[in-house]
Amino acid sequence: MSANDCAQCGRALPDTAIMCNACRTKLDQALGDIAALWHDLELAIARQTRMGGDSEGRRSAEKPLPYDPAASEVAWIVTNTIGAWVTHVVEHRPANPPTKPPGASLTGHQAGWLLGATQWLSYRPEASEAFSELHDAHRALIKAIDRPADLLFSGPCPNDGGDLYCKPDAPTVTCTTCATEYGVNERRTWLLAAADDHLAHASLIAKAVTNLGQPVTRQTISRWVMRGRLLAHGLDRDGREMYRVGDVLDLLNADTARTKHRRQQA
After folding, report:
1. What is the pTM of this model?
2. pLDDT at position 101
3. Whole-angstrom Cα distance, residue 197 to residue 244?
4. Nearest 5°: phi and psi at 182?
5. Rounded percentage of the chain residues whose pLDDT exceeds 90
6. How far is 162 from 266, CA to CA, in rounded Å?
7. What residues does 201 pair with on adjacent strands?
8. Is the pLDDT of residue 75 over 80?
């Protein structure tokens, strides 16, 4: 490969660029996907498998939870990769760092912002490094969200610890390993109890507990926060306040019981 060849694919270059237009287009597509699909990654986290390598009934160092550690790890990798390249661009090219719009994900917004820097990057000696790292992050994200969208996690099998998936309206779920059948409501009740001490931001909690049969919206959680009924416990990587799942479930159950009592009194 000569000095006038693309550092990524080896194509001949017409000017002093380090990365060819074809590779830059691929990089643009990867960043565009990250920006567009970040919400899908959060959905994957919300209907995640479980944390801990053991089934209920056996001792484990970690509580099984309805959150997938693999998808959470992917989110961490993508967030750090995107953030590192944003910092690099800001430090080496006069530019204002991206600021998160209200209600948006910082990582998704940063990925979109980086689209405006790929032409500049294509002339930099680190162009090939940027291409490789950002494409690796993109592939990891695609792999994490590439699962059947119509299946919901119903917890681990008590017999062998295998993950149980079923359709949203299914009354029972069968383990594909040991063929044992379980009631979906029973498994989701167990999952909700296991998630009590888990911390997450409002949107993620709303999606996760709704998938587990306890419908609640992000707006409802926000109202509880505004009224001082729900307290935050730190911030996540995107600067969003995190709440305890058990506190949300307690408030949801209390409001449901109050509504039921009023209807009985009417």
Report:
1. 0.53
2. 66
3. 6
4. -130, 155
5. 24
6. 47
7. 242
8. yes
